[in-house]
Amino acid sequence: MISWVSFWIDRRAVPARVSLSFTTLLTLSTQGNGLRYALPPVSYAKAIDYWYGVCMLFIFGVLLEFALVNSYMRRANKYNNLAQNLNWNTIYPPKIYHNDTDDDEPNRHKNGGYCSQPDLVYKAVFFNRRALAVDQISRVAFPAVFICFNFMYWYYYLEYQMNEDEYS
Fold first, then answer.
1. Confidence class of residue 142 from pLDDT cuts 50, 70 and 90?
2. Which end of the chain has fewer surrounding CB within 10 Å, N or C?
3. DSSP readout, the chain?
4. Adjacent-strand bridge partners of 115
C-alpha cells in the first residue's frame, strides 16, 4: 500500500516516485525473506508465499504505471518545448517533427503536412491529461483490486481451508 502513495506525488517528480517504489520493493523482499527463514522449510508454496508474491506483483504494477505516466509526460514536455520555440502562426516543418517513440526517426504530421504551434500545444495538453488520467485511475484501481484479492485470499484460507479440514 505504501507504493500507492506515488500516485499522489507529482508526475514530474521522477526520483521521488521511483525511489519510493524501489524502497517498498526492497523492504517487502527483505521482510519476505526474513519470514521464510523463520518458518520450517517445506517443498510446497505456503500461504505467505502467495501473499508476498501478489504484493510484489502490485509493486511491479506501480512501477509499470509510473513508466506509462513518465512516457506520456516526456511526450508532453517534448511537444511543449517545440511549441515554445515557435511563434503562434509559424508552421513546424516535418523534417524536425519526430515520432513519439523514436527521437531519431523523422515523421510528418498525420495528414502528411505541417504542424503549427496550436497543434503542438494541443498534443502537449493531450499527453499531460492522459498521464493525469492514468494516475487518477490508478488511485482507485490498485486499492480496489487489492481489496478484491484480500477477499479471495482470506476467504480461501479462512473458510475454504477450514471446511476442507473438517471433512478430512
1. very high
2. C
3. -GGGGGGTS-TT-HHHHHHHHHHHHHHHHHHHHHHHHHSPP-SS--HHHHHHHHHHHHHHHHHHHHHHHHHHHHHHHHHHHHHHTS-TTPEEPTTTPBPSS-TTSB---TTSS-EEHHHHHHHHHHHHHHHHHHHHHHHHHHHHHHHHHHHHHHIIIIIIHHHHHHH-
4. 92
Name which residue leads in pLDDT, 167 or 2. 2
CA angle 100, 63, 57 (to 5 degrees): 130
Cell of 69: 505516466
* Identity at 27, one-letter amino acid code: T
Name 116's Cβ contacts closer than 8 Å, sequence gap at least 6.
Answer: 86, 89, 90, 91, 92
Dihedral over alpha carbons 128, 129, 134, 139 (to 10 degrees): 110
Phi, psi of 115 (to 5 degrees): -120, 130
